[in-house]
Write a structure and sequence with these properties.
The complex is a heterodimer of chains A (about 400) and B (about 230). Chain A has 13 helices and 12 strands. Chain A is of the alpha+beta class and about 400 residues long. In chain A, a hairpin with a 2-residue loop joins β6 and β7. With about 230 residues, chain B is an alpha/beta fold. In chain B, a hairpin with a 2-residue loop joins β4 and β5. The longest helix of chain B has 16 residues. Classes of the chains: A alpha+beta (about 400), B alpha/beta (about 230).
Chain lengths: ~400, ~230
């Protein structure tokens, strides 16, 4: 039968030698704090990567026109050709971008203007807060409709929900606002989605950016595994579209940002693993420290153990008591380590650390395991002491 | 009537690390009845303490038989059984008191009852009663280092009585005390015997031995005399 009071006795034993208790906990404290620091940095790095790339799918393939190859141009026809012929790609959009003034009444802003095909938002993981997307027809008819990013809508209107249906002036032409996007927070290629206005591709080319603006195509491969095949296929379709001869270079470039995302994620995973391995080493060493201290404690209290046996303590009682001492030692160390770790995380902000509960849980679990594992052998040894030998020791 | 304790041809040897045998008890025969007050005397190295350790179930015998309340327990190795006997049937008194220094007198006295799974309130009430009965009721909150030798020994007697044992085993209980204090301790043993209990006490002090009803004299690992007449000095 386990007696709760054994915990009290273990506590008294630890308190009776505060300095040593503190010293032996130090390893655990530092170990757990390290685990928390490390996990926080790892979590922070991961979150940063995710934030940076949240609008990029790992399957996206971007096609740019190559600069300086004269008449190099991508077009909606290219988009249509790839979508029609490709076996590995079923989604894609075309876009142009530039900048222009945009005004509502007296409010003015300089904004990035993107001309897009209507499926741009779904490919880029962008959602509508108010209103709705324009249609295929709007693009074909070059209708002057526009969709605003969240911050831009806030700048021009007091509250973004008032924007829908209003008319804004872009490049001195009247555009009707059909929708406002949800706040996104991130940016890609240096442009924030929140500060951008979106018009149908053809309308933007004709009314705002002019026909020289370069069209960019974004495709989504059906599977991550098909990325290489999809890129080869897009290249060959576009070469045919552009009527390039075999000895001519491509007049476009493909980029595969997904591979950047996955290699960045991989790097941060490797880093996190490495750091946790280091922290585990610290905990292992601190465990050996605890084992050492427990051996010293057992040696010091050999006589006491003999007395306890003489008055009727069972081996199990002795084992429990010493094991509890080492567990309490490491749990207390673990808790102090968590407090220390949590309080240093804010100082690690520059390294991207963010508070993570999993670090605390991991550190605490580790410390309990260390206490049980390294406390068991000394406790077992104490419980097996011969009572007569123990009583004789001084 | 079955004797409380009966030893038949008990041998006990220690073994050095090179395997050499050191015989300490060489065939002890002994009977002690319930409600006796027995002293064990003898030269040092004669096996008194080893005998006491065997009686107290701290050691198994090497050969021979040890009957306690009619049961042969000399070869029992099961920790649970041995701990139970030490806890419930016997009370140990040591020359150096052997109190747990970080616990108060009250907690020291209550400790064997803790191992007997007695609930806290019950055992501490009884511990306080026992401290009252040995004249230390006021000192229950003191730690051993704050008590005199005689007081510490009285605490240890109270401790030995908490589980209401059949027998007290005392190894030189007055050895570290002056004669006045020693006499007070011996009076407590006499009181214990008066309640129908048994006392076995090792001593080398003739005056102390004279307090017992019977003195057993040991020499060279054997009982030389089962009823030794203590000479008057």
């Amino acid at each position: 039968m386990f007696k709760l009071e054994t915990i009290g006795m273990a506590f008294e034993a630890l308190v009776s030698n505060k300095f040593r208790t503190l010293l032996s906990m130090l390893g655990i404290i530092i170990g757990v704090a390290t685990v928390i620091g490390v996990v926080s940095i790892g979590a922070g790095a991961k979150a940063q990567i995710e934030e940076q790339f949240k609008n990029l799918s790992v399957t996206s393939i971007i096609v740019f026109p190559t600069r300086g190859t004269g008449n190099s141009k991508l077009s909606e026809d290219d988009l249509g050709a790839v979508l029609a012929e490709s076996n590995f790609v079923s989604e894609g959009n075309a876009s142009v971008s530039g900048s222009s003034n945009i005004a509502f009444g007296t409010e003015q802003a300089s904004a990035t203007i993107m001309g897009i095909t209507e499926n741009f938002f779904s490919v880029s993981n962008l959602n509508f807060l108010h209103g709705e997307n324009f249609t295929l027809q709007d693009n074909q008819d070059r209708n002057k409709v526009i969709i605003l990013g969240y911050t831009l809508a806030e700048t021009l209107f007091v509250t973004p929900d008032q924007a829908v249906g209003k008319t804004v002036k872009v490049n001195n032409r009247q555009f009707t606002v059909t929708g406002v996007l949800e706040e996104n927070g991130s940016s890609t290629f240096g442009t924030s989605y929140d500060d951008t206005a979106y018009a149908p591709l053809n309308s933007a080319q004709q009314n705002i950016l002019g026909n020289n603006a370069q069209v960019r195509l974004v495709f989504l491969a059906n599977e991550v595994e098909l990325m290489d095949l999809a890129q080869d296929e897009i290249t060959s379709i576009l070469r045919t579209e552009h009527r390039l001869r075999d000895n001519q270079d491509d007049d476009f470039q493909l980029r595969d940002p997904g591979s950047i995302v996955s290699s960045a994620t991989e790097t941060s995973d490797t880093l996190a693993f490495l750091l946790i391995a280091v922290a585990s080493m610290v905990l292992l060493v601190s465990g050996i420290g605890i084992m050492n201290v427990m051996f010293v404690t057992v040696a010091e209290r050999t006589k006491e153990i003999g007395v306890l046996k003489a008055i009727g303590a069972k081996q199990k009682d002795i084992l429990t008591q010493f094991l509890l001492e080492s567990i309490m030692l490491s749990i207390t160390g673990g808790v102090l380590g968590i407090i220390l770790g949590m309080s240093i995380v804010p100082f690690l902000k520059d390294y991207g650390a963010i508070q993570s509960i999993s670090g605390a849980i991991l550190g605490f679990t580790f410390s309990v395991i260390v206490g049980i594992f390294f406390g068991f052998y000394p406790a077992l040894k104490a419980s097996k002491l011969d009572p007569v030998d123990a009583l004789r020791s001084e | 009537m079955t004797p409380l304790i009966k030893l038949e041809n008990v041998h006990k040897s220690y073994y050095l690390s090179n395997g050499e045998e050191i015989p300490v008890l060489r065939g002890v025969d002994l009977e002690i009845n319930k409600n006796e007050f027995v002293a064990i005397m003898g030269e040092s190295g004669g096996g008194k303490s080893t005998l006491m350790n065997i009686l107290g179930c701290l050691h198994p015998v090497t050969s021979g038989k040890y009957f306690f309340e009619g049961e042969d327990i000399g070869h029992v190795k099961d920790d649970f059984t041995l701990a139970f006997i030490r806890n419930k049937k016997m009370g140990f008194i040591f020359q150096q008191f052997n109190l747990i220094t970080k616990l108060t007198a009250l907690k020291n006295v209550a400790l064997p009852a803790f191992y007997a799974d007695t609930d806290k309130h019950k055992r501490e009430t009884r511990a306080q009663d026992l401290l009252d009965s040995v004249g230390l009721g006021e000192r229950s909150g003191h730690k051993p280092t704050e008590l005199s030798g005689g007081q510490q020994q009285r605490v240890s007697i109270a401790r030995s009585l908490i589980n209401d044992p059949e027998i007290i085993l005392a190894d030189e209980p007055t050895g570290a005390l002056d004669s006045q204090t020693g006499a007070e301790i011996l009076q407590l043993f006499t009181d214990f015997k008066a309640r129908g209990k048994t006392v076995i006490m090792i001593t080398h002090d003739l005056k102390v031995a004279r307090m017992a009803e019977r003195v057993i004299f040991m020499k060279d690992g054997k009982v030389l005399d089962h009823n030794y007449k203590v000479p008057h000095v």
